[in-house]
Amino acid sequence: MMKVLTIVSHPRTQSLTFEAVRRFTQGLEEAGHETDVLDLHRIGFDPVLWEADEPDYSGPPKQYSPEVQAEMERLLKYDALAFVFPVYWYSIPAMLKGYIDRVWNYGFAYGSNHLPHKKTLWLGLAGASLEHFQKRDYDKMIALQLNIGMSDYVGIKDSSVELLYDTGGDQAHIEQLLQRAYQLGLDYATTEQATPTL
Prior knowledge:
With 198 residues, this protein is of the alpha/beta class. It has helices at residues 16-30, 66-75, 94-103, 130-135, 138-151, 171-186, and strands at 3-8, 34-39, 80-86, 119-125, 158-164. The chain has one domain (3-186): Rossmann fold (3-Layer(aba) Sandwich), CATH 3.40.50. β1 (3-8), α1 (16-30) and β2 form a beta-alpha-beta unit. α1 (16-30) packs parallel to α6. The longest helix is centred in the last third of the chain and has 16 residues, at 171-186.
């Protein structure tokens, strides 16, 4: 059993992204895990990196802003992480990127320290098809960025990316996507690392 923080980034709670969160966390709970949902929009998280949270590589450990310190403390209460988000421009939304920039900061997530989490899942919802993503290796690009450029860099070796494609499909297809989100929660502790191949 693990304590999993599920972090969601979407402007609307009545969205497929939030429905995927609900199904994913249902799976987590049925598998015996504890989970809390961190809704970046609803807590009013500011994704803009200002001077107070700019990494300082030259001096002693930096005291970051109260907002960032609070989020760092929140992260340390959990064994594992999951991010659920819409795919924008073949990447994560600006809100989520700003969260990473500010909270996964120098001296906390990299540098003299690393994150202690056992696992990270990146669950993205994509409007385009699998074939569209595979045509120019967008799927591999996203996996490389999230698994290696982010998770591995901060010390989380078990990281996987799961993309739910064709989110504009018919209701039967949408239900398949949501069932996949539920299954990912149910199998969270047993899913294998999906390290991208180059």
